[in-house]
Amino acid sequence: MTSTLSSVPFVDLTLIHDPLKPEIQAAIQAVMDQSDFVLGHALTDFEIAFANACGVQYGVGVACGTDAIALGLQACGIQPGDEVLVPANTFIATLIGVLHAGATPVLVDCDPHTALIDLNQADKAVTKKTKAIIPVHLYGQMVSPHQLFAFAKAHDLIIFEDAAQAHLAERESYGAGSIGLAAAFSFYPSKNLGAFGDGGMVVTQNETVAANLRSLRNYGAPQKYVHTERGTNSRLDTLQAAILKVKLPHLEQWNRERNFAAEKYDASVLLMREKGIIPIENQSADGHVYHLYVIRVTEDCAITRDRLKDQLSEQGIQVGIHYPIPCHLQPAYQNLGYKEGDFPQAEKLSQQILSLPMYPGLTTHQINQVISAIQSTIN
Q1: Residue 6 has pLDDT above 80, yes or no
Q2: What is the pTM of this model?
Q3: 20 to 30 A from 124, CA-CA: which of 182, 197, 224, 264?
Q4: Which residues contact 295 (CB under 8 A, 6 or more apart)?
């Protein structure tokens, strides 16, 4: 959807794709000419380039971000019966990835100010069966690497990052994907680096983990027709990798534009604190890559979050909620044994959070439209 003066889309991908059409079309044509559509040269090239961008040695492309979590955990040695700490405030794919790996997800409440996993609460959830923690770098902000290192060392745990929303994010001089044994990324179209369909990748510094992943994604076959483990078919398409390789050199600039837009939002949103509108806290400075810009509509606000959402939509401003139902309250996962009230911060956030339009190319005029609409509605 192309933005106009009278509306502000939640995401406008045409702004980044239109200037790259000739390069993208050429990349697609090159794959067509070579006809290596599965595990082709463009995939290998992109795996190397993206791993380098993350500051690690190996990248293994898979079909989607959920598979990146599931296969990544298996490649790191997580087995059925193992427990994995997961934030209750995350997209359901994190939980599904753990379950598909055969492990048991143990949910942990979040910090209400950052929406990230609360490591103090995680400390209380560790048992003898706990083998790993998945810090979800939510909305584009990393969980503190130094705190994660201390936590993992204290409990002898694997760190496996869910960096699906944090392409090239940084914190405390570490980049997303470089602090754990491995990390999962998603290339869903609306991500900071998005494909023209689904896609994912696991990055790692560990050669054995990378080799395990290459086998697991390809039917558990380290060589053709020799299946040494129970793998699956989950390969990043060569065409998607070719497109992503064209887009990758622009990612830093696109992230800067997101950060610039966030600063513009902050300047106005921070003035609405006394009206009950509070932004999710940025503790990473320019290292936050703002996949999403999220505010909290607190109990001090004159109207509810849902009322504000409806009013903004009526004024042509598209907004979202990430996420309206915490993992432990999802109907499909009641068998995990959690109930309402178990994770009060995640539950409270789910009733307050609202994601405002955010994408490279979002103009100051559009941001002012959004802010004016919020101000007029809450007043």
Answers
A1: no
A2: 0.97
A3: 182
A4: 269, 277, 278, 279, 280, 353, 354, 356
